[in-house]
């Protein structure tokens, strides 16, 4: 029997950063409006995630030959790194990951964070060695809610695993999973949009009940 692959989101799933997404999103909307990058209203922009606004600006830059995105990306990287340096770890996550590994599950991370940020925070809390794969925005062309990251991992492990699940806290995680054809497990799910889920947990240790079986490598 082939093992099961469990893919985890990072921020607000494995760890909790102090990233101020509200202030960052407001700043990004103001910059986008100031530069006349889109005909969308501020209200319409307010329904978009940070990653969606970044894509909007990147697409504009490619079409117009401009470089407005550089300022926004630098602000995002500064904000996320500062936030992650103040991060706390989800209670009991190391024990849950250890037990899942002992049961034979393959574990991975998919995050919209940068490689530098992801590796730094995972190493800081002693979690990096639990994972066979960590995929960040530096390895994919499109950010969640686009399914590129999940599709990348899915294709990479398709021949090695029997099932794949994605665990995350936000609607963009669920939307990425839906688009990639990967079952989604919500973790204290937040966000404005409803997404299909096979389960919802409020504590990561509940995954041990959802996956009681031993996932033996084939």
Structure write-up:
The chain has 218 residues and is of the alpha/beta class. The protein has two domains: 136 residues, Rossmann fold; 65 residues, no CATH class. Helices cover 43% and strands 16% of the residues. The strands form two sheets. The chain has a six-stranded parallel beta sheet, sandwiched between helices. Strands 2-3 form a two-stranded antiparallel ribbon. α8 links the parallel β6 and β7. The relative contact order is 0.19. The mean pLDDT is 93.
Short description:
The protein has about 220 residues and is of the alpha/beta class. The protein has helices at about 20-35, 40-45, 50-65, 70-85, 95-100, 115-125, 150-155, 170-180, 205-210, and strands spanning about 5-10, 15, 90, 105-110, 135, 165-170, 185-190, 200.
What descriptors fit this protein?
single chain, 218 residues, alpha/beta, Rossmann fold, 2 domains, 6-stranded parallel β-sheet, globular
Named CATH architecture of the largest domain: 3-Layer(aba) Sandwich
**Radius of gyration from the CA trace?**
18 Å
Number of strands: 8
Query: Domains counted in the coordinates: how many?
Result: 2
Q: What is the average of the pLDDT values?
A: 93
Placed side by side, the strands forming the largest sheet appear as: 5-4-1-6-7-8
